[in-house]
Automatic annotation (TrEMBL):
It is found in: Endoplasmic reticulum. It comes from Echinops telfairi (Lesser hedgehog tenrec). PROSITE patterns: VITELLOGENIN. This is Microsomal triglyceride transfer protein large subunit. InterPro entries: Lipid_transp_b-sht_shell (IPR015819), Lipovitellin_superhlx_dom (IPR011030), MTP_lip-bd (IPR045811), MTTP (IPR039988), Vitellinogen_b-sht_N (IPR015816), Vitellogenin_N (IPR001747). It comes from the Eukaryota. Residues 1-17 form the signal peptide. It catalyses: a 1,2-diacyl-sn-glycero-3-phosphoethanolamine(in) = a 1,2-diacyl-sn-glycero-3-phosphoethanolamine(out); a cholesterol ester(in) = a cholesterol ester(out); a 1,2-diacyl-sn-glycero-3-phosphocholine(in) = a 1,2-diacyl-sn-glycero-3-phosphocholine(out); a triacyl-sn-glycerol(in) = a triacyl-sn-glycerol(out). The keyword Transferase does not apply. Residues 28-659 form the Vitellogenin domain. The lineage of its organism: Eukaryota, Metazoa, Chordata, Craniata, Vertebrata. SMART domains: LPD_N. Catalyzes the transport of triglyceride, cholesteryl ester, and phospholipid between phospholipid surfaces. Required for the assembly and secretion of plasma lipoproteins that contain apolipoprotein B. May be involved in regulating cholesteryl ester biosynthesis in cells that produce lipoproteins. Its main location: endoplasmic reticulum.
């Protein structure tokens, strides 16, 4: 028994679970005081840096643990008192030297006297079978300090045997797996399974979404059947999907180690733990072991109006295509998310027309109850004098990263009211469709407002009040992509008038392949082959594109190719271009097309030599192992050379990932971490047209200037010290589409060019540590590179036509006038 008294947290291995007195988890010896050392540290970095480049801090202390009470009816029912003392806070990076924010600061100065007293106040932990049954603390302790003690107490929860179970600790209700070995027990916590109330939001946007990975491993070191040390490590890593250089990592460690034991107090008598707790101190109250949230405080921060004044100049119309405009916009959104309705309304009412549209964008993008209430109070949909502001509000709603039911309800109520503009009424319904789609993607399809919105859209298509409303509801369905709307779309696609039929068909084109069933493809085949009625060329070619993109059968592909030669001239050429594009640019239907072309009756010179100007072409803008950017240009002319349809689509393809755009993380050490990723896009579109009767030529230029900024921010806050990592990337680019038409001959010559400007890419990295008293340390880095511009290749026929349009001037033998 003397030997047992020197060791830490006695384990009596359970050879038989039915034997009374045998423990299944940690068990302290009677009448002993266990003296331990404890430390917890957090490190922030991009995941591949050196220790001297990291930021973070370490909290260390001595710990006294003593068994106060054991249930007379079972050894596995215990009440333990845990006390932290001799607390110290320091840098993880010991090479910081004179630049350390803790240099010359005592622990009371760093934590504050009240925080230090609270941290050193004991807590009581009720363990049953090694699991925390109850956590007792004083009332009204600072939440951040109480969380640190929760993190320490959670280390006392474990089991000796291997197996998977659910446990409740500071991280929430989590799935944990124990692996028991002779000299250690390893506990692996599945952090993604933890059920805990968190602020923040997720996004279903694969482009601007974030891939994240989290791990938690705790090792209980055992010597001679006794635990002598506990080591825990938790990591959270994230990376932006389309910009892999924007990454961040949190590493949180805990270590609890036995130093010695002394004689301790005798066990308290009693059969009920609640009575024992009250006998220890009546100020103790049962508190959740799960970590609690607390707001970060900002001392001496500028008002929202002051922040707007410093942001405003960057959002003037002439600056909108610059990266600084996007960066300022994103920063101001963060401030709006903590603002009250009255503050927001004050700024909206004072701003002039020049910057007001951008302010409406920002307020709507904040996506808080206060910002929504403020903007709805500010806008008057019955007025026709503020249409631009109403449009900007609605577009911002459509692009919302994490819309909620309240926003959808507000738009439904607005739609049922009066409007000063019929165009705004139509836009409201279209945006309702977009919100339905996003809410359904986040498992919100059964929300009351979503159900009501579905009825509005589908009911409007089934029984439109006015004929022109059909287009409005089809556009809403094109955004919502409701599976139950497909039968209605098939009806309008096959029996509707030209524009309605075309809209219904292009809506079907947006559905995922699993929704394009055999029944749907039967209708599309009837449309393309005109089995029941004549359809416009644009409708037929769209139907063909859907079939080819939806796992077409052998006979479907064969019939489509066999139709080439029987179609109008330009449609022949367009369908032929689609086949060539499938063969050149590997797509799901490419293999089937190659199989069909092995038949001589299908693959012959007559069919594949059809001439014309129409085309379909797909190419890469950029590709790497993680993602690819593609563009596709479809052009369909009429027989007289008039452009019937021109579509330019740019796609970003990414692998599947778990996505979190903003998230609060409860670290098991008790510290609170926040990750926040924002992306902003500013687009400035301008155009010009030159027309010359002398040269019989017209030139149209459409210039798209784009600025993109993405910021990733990780912070860890203990209320008395804060550390953070900010990573951002920005770029400004331009994409120009030039169309030159020469009408000196018939059919007209048309040359199209798509040019990308040189692209500067800048990346910034800021790491910091800051005390609540104001003292701080900051490390900044910057990288910049220039990506050269380029002209994207289009279809071969376009290249041939451009050679004719820009043919070199013939050289003359004479230098004279004639």
């Amino acid at each position: 028994m003397i030997l047992l008294a020197v060791l830490f947290l006695c384990f009596i291995s359970s050879y038989s679970a039915s034997v009374k007195g045998h423990t299944t988890g940690l068990s302290l010896n009677n009448d002993r005081l266990y003296k331990l050392t404890y430390s917890t540290e957090v490190i922030l970095d991009r995941g591949k840096g050196k220790l001297q480049d990291t930021v973070g801090f370490r909290i260390s202390s001595n710990v006294d643990a003593v068994l106060l009470w054991r249930n007379p009816d079972g050894d596995d029912d215990q009440l333990i008192k845990i006390t932290m003392n001799d607390v110290n806070v320091e840098n993880v990076n010991q090479q910081r030297g004179e630049r350390s924010i803790f240099k010359g600061k005592s622990t009371p100065q760093v934590l504050g006297k009240e925080n230090l007293e609270a941290l050193q106040r004991p807590v009581l932990v009720h363990l049953i079978h090694g699991k925390v049954k109850e956590f007792y603390s004083y009332q009204n302790e600072p939440v951040a300090i109480e969380n640190l003690k929760r993190g320490l107490a959670s280390l006392f929860q474990m089991q000796l045997s291997s197996g998977t179970t659910n446990e409740v600790d500071i991280s929430g209700d989590c799935k944990v797996t124990y692996q028991a070995h002779q000299d250690k027990v390893i506990k692996i916590k599945a952090l993604e399974s933890c059920k805990i109330a968190r602020s923040g939001f997720t996004t279903t946007n694969q482009v601007l979404g974030v891939s994240s990975k989290a791990t938690s491993v705790t090792t209980y070191k055992i010597e001679d059947s006794f635990v002598v040390a506990v080591m825990a490590e938790e990591t959270h890593a994230f990376g932006l999907n389309f910009l892999r250089t924007v990454t961040g990592k949190i590493v949180s460690k805990q270590k609890l180690e036995l130093k010695t034991t002394d004689a301790g107090p005798r066990l308290m008598p009693g059969k009920h733990v609640a009575a024992v707790v009250q006998a220890v101190n009546s100020k103790y109250t049962a508190r959740p072991i799960v970590g609690q949230t607390f707001p970060s405080k900002c001392k001496g921060c500028p008002s929202l109006l002051d922040r707007w004044q410093s942001t405003r100049k960057h959002l003037l119309p002439d600056n909108l295509s610059k990266a600084q405009a996007v960066r300022s916009f994103l920063t101001f959104i963060q401030h709006l998310r903590t603002a009250k309705k009255e503050e927001i309304l004050e700024i909206l009412k004072k701003e002039d027309k020049e910057v007001l549209p951008q302010l409406v964008d920002a307020v709507t993008s904040a996506q808080t109850p206060d910002s929504l209430e403020a903007i709805l109070n500010f806008l008057d949909f019955k007025s026709s004098s503020s249409i631009i502001l109403q449009e900007r509000f609605l577009y911002a709603c459509g692009f919302a990263s994490h819309p909620n039911e309240a926003l959808l309800k507000a738009l439904i109520t607005t739609f049922k009211g009066s409007f000063g503009s019929s165009d705004i009424r139509e836009t409201v319904m279209i945006i309702i469709g977009a919100l339905v789609r996003k809410l359904c993607q986040n498992d919100g399809c059964k929300l009351k407002a979503v159900v009501e919105a579905k009825k509005l859209i589908l009911g409007g298509l089934e029984r439109p009040e006015k004929k022109e409303d059909t287009t409005m509801y089809l556009l809403a369905l094109k955004n919502a992509l409701l599976p139950e709307g497909i039968p209605m779309l098939l009806k309008y696609a096959e029996a509707g008038e030209g524009p309605v039929s075309h809209l219904a068909t292009t809506t079907l084109q947006r559905y995922d392949v699993p929704f394009i069933t055999e029944e749907v493809k039967k209708t599309l085949n009837r449309i393309y082959h005109q089995n029941h009625r004549v359809h416009e060329k644009t409708v037929r070619t769209t139907a063909a594109a859907i079939i080819l993109n939806s796992n077409p059968s052998y006979i479907e592909v064969k019939n489509l190719i066999l139709s080439i030669g029987e179609l109008p001239k330009e449609m022949n050429k367009y369908m032929l271009a689609i086949v060539h594009d499938l063969l050149r640019f590997e797509m799901p239907a490419s293999k089937m097309v190659r199989r069909v072309l092995k038949e001589m009756i299908v693959h012959n010179y007559d069919r594949f030599s059809k001439s014309g100007s129409s085309s379909a072409y797909t190419g890469y803008i950029e590709r790497n192992p993680y993602s690819a950017s593609t563009y596709s240009l479809d052009i369909l002319y009429s027989g007289s050379g008039i452009l019937r349809r021109s579509n330019l689509n740019i796609f970003q393809h990414l692998g599947k990932a778990h996505l979190h755009a903003s998230q609060e993380i409860q670290l098991q050490s008790g510290l609170k971490a926040n990750t926040d990723v924002q992306g902003g896009l500013a687009i400035d579109i301008s155009g010009s047209m030159e027309f010359s009767l002398w040269y019989r030529e017209s030139k149209t230029r459409v210039k798209n200037r784009v600025a993109v900024v993405v910021t990733g921010d990780i912070t860890v806050d203990s209320s008395f010290v804060k550390t953070g990592l900010e990573i951002s990337g920005e770029t400004e680019t331009g994409l120009e589409f030039i169309s030159t038409v020469q009408f000196s001959q018939y059919p007209f010559l048309v040359c199209m060019q798509m040019d990308k400007d040189a692209v500067p890419f800048r990346q910034f990295e800021t790491k910091y540590e800051r005390l609540s008293t104001g003292k701080g340390y900051v490390l900044r880095k910057r990288k910049e590179r220039l990506v050269t511009g380029s002209e994207f290749p289009l279809h071969q026929e376009n290249s041939d036509m451009c050679k004719l349009v820009f043919a070199p001037e013939p050289e003359t033998a004479s230098n004279g006038w004639f």
